[in-house]
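TASK: fixed-backbone design
INPUT:
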């Protein structure tokens, strides 16, 4: 709501020297001039700051937020997340849309490449799902790819998804994630430090990453190039003293270079969701777990015909072509294709690209 142009550092000085935002709002011009002079703030902002304090505008904005179901929480408010107050560059205020969240509960950020592989999507979704079955909240920036997949897994498990936006909480960006956005409003919450109707701008997204890492206990990177935007979140996390973990990948894959570098530089390695639960010190069962048989293979609840049992066992999380499956199983290509079609119809596998197949995790 700051429309004066005064930099955040100046606003923080005001907040640290006065009791509340309300007291700051009602400061008279002589007091404002005195404050600016005392703290060596640029005098050109004095007049804009004084004139920007229009009570009618403030009331209109709060009325709009009320109608839209948006809550404004300043850093003075007792419900402001304590985890954020512990970072150096915490937002002065936050906008929330959705349910009130217990941020003292375990929170894991799942981040990674926007243009990720099918394998990356499946792994992110699996991690989001399985963590949620252990009452771990999932947070990300709602970007396409890994971020959205992690939140989608959390939603499927009936967990608490949290999205931090680089725009107003009333705007879904990217638009392709509108279904996830709507589910998050119902099951979790959308967060932003930017006012209502703030459009998505490139410079806002790197800044919002400090909020993601600030609210998370662990940052999990699923797929990331060597110079990925996800590594901005990792850098914030390191500065904030948070744990960082990564899913390893093949050294020849560009999407694995960022993750492998994190592990090489001392980050945690993820070989299963249990590695994350161990770091969070959450007790879990050694058996496959979820809320309705979770990620244990769906085939355990089905009797597969013998001729397609071997086909299902051959399909993996990494896409395989029908010809490769035929070679590995020793079956005729026509028999393989017919079997793969059956498995697709049963919802056990999917075809992310023509003639390439992967197991479905959900």
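OUTPUT:
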């Amino acid at each position: 709501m700051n429309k004066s142009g005064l930099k955040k550092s100046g606003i923080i000085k005001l907040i640290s020297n006065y009791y509340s935002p309300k007291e700051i709002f009602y400061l008279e011009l002589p007091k404002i001039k005195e404050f600016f002079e005392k703290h060596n703030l640029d005098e050109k902002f004095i007049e804009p700051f004084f004139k920007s304090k229009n009570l009618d505008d403030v009331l209109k904005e709060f009325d709009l937020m009320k109608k839209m179901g948006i809550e404004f929480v300043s850093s003075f408010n007792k419900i402001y997340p304590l985890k954020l107050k512990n970072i150096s560059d915490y937002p002065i205020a936050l906008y929330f849309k959705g349910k009130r969240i217990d941020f003292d509960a375990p929170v894991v950020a799942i981040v990674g490449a926007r243009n990720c592989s099918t394998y990356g999507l499946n792994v992110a979704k699996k991690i989001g799902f399985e963590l949620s079955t252990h009452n771990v909240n999932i947070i990300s920036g709602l970007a396409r790819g890994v971020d959205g997949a992690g939140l989608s897994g959390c939603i499927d498990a009936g967990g608490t998804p949290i999205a931090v936006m680089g725009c107003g909480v009333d705007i879904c960006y990217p638009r392709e994630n509108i279904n996830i956005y709507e589910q998050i409003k119902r099951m979790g919450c959308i967060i932003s430090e930017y006012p209502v109707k703030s459009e998505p701008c490139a410079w806002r997204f790197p800044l919002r990453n400090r909020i993601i890492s600030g609210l998370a206990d662990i940052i999990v990177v699923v797929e990331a190039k060597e110079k990925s935007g996800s590594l901005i979140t990792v850098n914030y996390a390191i500065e904030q003293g948070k744990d960082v973990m990564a899913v390893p990948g093949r050294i020849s894959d560009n999407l694995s270079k960022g993750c492998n570098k994190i592990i090489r530089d001392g980050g945690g390695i993820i070989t299963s969701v249990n590695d994350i639960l161990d770091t969070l010190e959450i007790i879990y069962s050694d058996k496959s777990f979820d809320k309705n048989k979770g990620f244990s293979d769906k085939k355990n609840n089905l009797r597969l015909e013998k001729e397609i049992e071997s086909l299902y066992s051959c399909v993996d999380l990494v896409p395989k072509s029908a010809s490769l499956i035929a070679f590995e199983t020793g079956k005729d290509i026509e028999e393989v294709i017919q079997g793969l079609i059956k498995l697709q119809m049963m919802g056990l596998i999917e075809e992310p690209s023509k003639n390439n197949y992967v197991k479905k995790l959900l």
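COMMENT: The domain at 298-359 is CATH 1.10.10.10 (Arc Repressor Mutant, subunit A).
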